[in-house]
């Protein structure tokens, strides 16, 4: 083996060892950066920079894809040990950057719109300067996109490899971003705006409309980060789409009208006010504009403008109706349910601490979007209900040590018997000395295990299970388990496990034997 390959394998083994050490250490989520970067020049600055570059629990999307502290710690460790030069998509620096680019996107769209509206030489230097500021930020963003990871929903994994990131960007938005960035430099080659190619290049910035989804996603992140009202934000999002599409159509009409005037030798007066008013009359379905329709090209252009105006008005009306309908119906349901909670708490005379805990529970479970899960399960078919449950927990069951070698058909049987339970911090889940008739799987969250003397002996995280040995052998709980963070667990009764394995006794024997080997166990 040559020296280069040997050193590469050595570095890989050292990285894996470091990653294992971190995952099994007692470091918390915020201590991973300190654990990895423990020496060197400007250590505090480097730690701060990498803390901004890696996954952060404050990012709105983190809680969606990495619910528990254990999952976040594992992802942070993977990022910092293997992909340090990649910006994590759920990092704070990426959140701030996406927010900045959302405003730059709007700014550049307005600049492009007005630069196509005012074609005369009097304004060209003004728009060059305004456009130049935005283009410099866009140039940085073009490079940034090659270093920003993304979450793959199909793989349920964050992609941080530079090769995969670059390949995905080149296949999707790179060409559009490059075209939209080119006009400002190209226009410096021309000294007059009468050249039709100058006007043509000005409209290149309109290619940014293909990135409108990024703008909407950025505003969605801002809304979740700042906890803004979702219905007001939905109305704002619909308004932004409307404004951007209208500006895009305005610019398109100006450019096409200008070209038509050039190639038909029609006298051009460059009256921006008249052009703007004509386009407004067309898009708002008032008339065919102020200019006479002196050739078939203008007739086609006006017809397209009327069709576009009809559809954008239809979109706006549909969005307004949807926001109005959802706002009042959902608000009424949520308020009725919250009123019932408060009346129940008041009637029972519960103390303040219990009141707060009840509200924390419902906010954690429903995330302020209340729904009747029992009613939903009643509406769907039995097969669909089982498929929903299998999709939710099947991957987590495969992580459980005692079940990961079981065939899929047995796992499917077990999945249909699981019951979801939510526990808040400091909730006691099982108590030592009590009868053991069930076991638990940790969907997400962190739990602490205490022995009979009150000594903390272990922590349990996502994918762990507990209670199987006591359930199958001892029949009495040997330890106590308490929730450290908010947790969701899946509960499996002993009778359901035995019934699922009644035709496969060898698997039941395997589970009992495996649980005997594991220590400490509950």
TrEMBL record:
InterPro entries according to UniProt: CNG_cation_channel (IPR050866), cNMP-bd_dom (IPR000595), cNMP-bd_dom_sf (IPR018490), RmlC-like_jellyroll (IPR014710)
Domain Cyclic nucleotide-binding: 402-518
Ranges that cross the membrane: 100-120, 236-259, 293-316
Protein name, entry field: Cyclic nucleotide-binding domain-containing protein
Keywords tagged on the record: Ion channel, Ion transport, Ligand-gated ion channel, Membrane, Transmembrane, Transmembrane helix, Transport
Entry coiled-coil feature ranges: none
GO MF terms, alphabetically ordered: intracellularly cyclic nucleotide-activated monoatomic cation channel activity; protein-containing complex binding
UniProt superkingdom: Eukaryota
PANTHER family per UniProt: CYCLIC NUCLEOTIDE-GATED CATION CHANNEL SUBUNIT A
SMART domains with a match to the protein in the record: cNMP
